[in-house]
## 1
Amino acid sequence: MSLADEVGVAAACRALRMPRSALYRDRAARHVCQLPAPVAALRRRPPLALSEHEQRVVLDVLNSPRFVNCAPAAIYAQLLDEGSYIASVRTMYRLLQGCAAVRERRNQLRHPEYAKPELLAVTPNQVWSWDITKLKGPVRGTCFHLYVILDIFSRYVVGWMVAEKESAELAEQLIADSAMKENI
C-alpha cells in the first residue's frame, strides 16, 4: 500500500515536497503508447491505410528517445531532411490520438519551490518592516514619497516621513531616528 492510498495524493506530495504535476508526468511517462484494440469495422478499410505493422513502426519512431520531446510536425521535417518518409503529419497525430498521447511532448521547465519568507515577532520592536510609497502631488506629474516603518508585532507605525525624492540617505536617517526614539 502506498502513501498516496493512505493519506491521498495531495497530502503525500506535500509531505514529500514534490509537485503533483511531477507525479502525474512520471505516471504518464511510464505509460507506453499501445495500439487501440481493433474495432469491428462498419465500413471498408481504405486501400491506402497503414497496416498494423506500419502503424507500430510509426508509433515506435514517435515514442523513441530521439523524438519523444518533439511535435509530429518537427519529427516529419527532420525525417524528410534525412531522406525518410514514414507517414504524414496528420497520420502521426491520428495515431497518437488513437492511444491518448496527443499532449505537450516537449520537456517542461520545473520551477523550484521557494519557501515563503516568514517573519515572526513575539514582542514589540522585535521585527520592523518598511516601505516607500509614491503619493500624487498637487500638480500633474509630481509626486511625494511616503516612507513608513511598521512594527510587525503590533502594526504600530514606528516612524514615517514624506519627502520630495527617494534616497538611501533619507531612509537611513528615518531608520536611525526611529531606532533612537524607540530606545533600540
## 2
Amino acid sequence: MEKETIDMICRSAVSKRDLQSDRMAHYVVRAMLAGVYIGFALVLSFTVGQYFYEVHSPVTYMMTALFFGIAFILIVYGGGELFTSNTMYMTIGTMKKVTTWRETILVWMTCYGGNFLGILLFTTLLYFSGVFQSIGEDHLLLTLAEKKMTLPTSYLFFRAIFANWLVCLAVWIPMRVKEDMAKVVLMMLLVFTFFISGYEHSIANLAVFLISLTSPHSEVINMGGFIHNLIPVTIGNIVGGGFFVGMLFFFLNEPIKRKQIQRKPIIVSATKVSNQKL
C-alpha cells in the first residue's frame, strides 16, 4: 500500500549514506543546520509561552507547542539533517538492503554529533545576544528543563518512544500528499501533538538544556540531569522511529508469500474405467 513512500525513503537513505561517506563536512553542516533551526523554534515557542505563563493562563503550554512545528518545516524545506527522523530513514533502507547496519549507525552518530554542534553554536550566539540572560529562575523554559531532568528513567524512555513515533509520522504522512500546504499543516499538527503531550525528543532536549545551562538557572539544572535525560531519551527515540515506524511499515509492505498447494494426481484404475464404459 505504501510502496512508493518506501521507495522514496530508500532513495533518501542511500543519498544520506553517500553524503555522509563522500562529503562528510557537507553532511555535518546540514546536521548543524537542523540543530540551529530547532534553536530558533524553541526561542520563539518559549518567548510566546512566557507571556501566558506569567498570567497563569491555562493555554500556556498549548501556545508554546503551537509554534515548535516551525523547526520541522525549516529542517525539511531548509535542507537540514535530523537524527530522530533518520532513525526511520536508515532503518527502512537497511531492512530493504540498500544500506547496511554499519552505515546506518555511522549516519546516526554523525547526524547526532552535527545536531549537537549546531545547537552548541546557536546557544553560544544566543548567550552573547543576551536574549535569555535577564530571565529569572522561574522562567517557563527553566521550569520545563528542571522537570525533564528529574523525571524517572522509565518515564523518559517510554515518552521518547512516543515522541519519535509521532515525529517520524510527521515525515511519513506528508510524503503521501502532493501539495506543499497540506504537507506543512500535517507536519505542524503532528509535531504539535508530540510537544503538547509532554513526550521527550532528544535533539529538542539538547537545545532546552544547553540554553538553560547558559542562562541564570537553579542547582536542579546541571550536567548530571542532562545525562540522566539524554541517554534513555536517545534510546527511546531510536526505538520509536526505527521500530514503530521503520520496521513496522517495512513489515506491512513486504510482499505476501503464498504457499503453493500441491495437488496429488488422481490415479484411476483400468478396471474402473472399463466398468464405467459398460
## 3
Amino acid sequence: LDTVVSGRGKSKACVATFVERKSRFYLALPIADRSAASMEGAIHTVHAAFPEGTFRTATTDRGKEFSCHERVRASLGVPLYFADPYSSWQRGSNENANGLLREFFPKGSDFATVGQGEIVDALAKINGRPRKCLGWKTAHEAFAEEVLRLN
C-alpha cells in the first residue's frame, strides 16, 4: 500500500496504490487527500472488490495516512506491517509499480485533474504488459489464475 501524490502547490488529490506481490497486479484508486480516513476508505473499497482471502497481509510505509492501521486490522482481519524507515526496498514491488505509474503521470501532475478513465487506461497498460518474472504472463493473467486457484 502506498500513495502517489500531486505536485507541490497543486491540489491535495492523490491515488492510493496497491500491488499484489505474487502476480504484480497493480491498482490505483483516486482519493481526496493523504488522510487516514481517505486511505481507510480506499483499503475497504479494494478489499470488498475481491474474493475473501485474496489479501492476507499488507505492507506500508510509515506515512500518516496509515494511522488507520488498527481499525483496518480490526475490521478486515488483514495484518498491516510497516517497512522500516528509509527502507524502500522492503516494499520493492510497490515502489517499482509507482514508478511505472509515474511514466503516465510524472511528478508535478495534479491528480485532481486526472480523469478516472486515464487512470484505468494506465493500469490496463501496466497490468497488461508481459513480464519475464511471471513467465511472460501479464500481471492480470497471473492475478486471475491466483484468484481462481484460491476459490
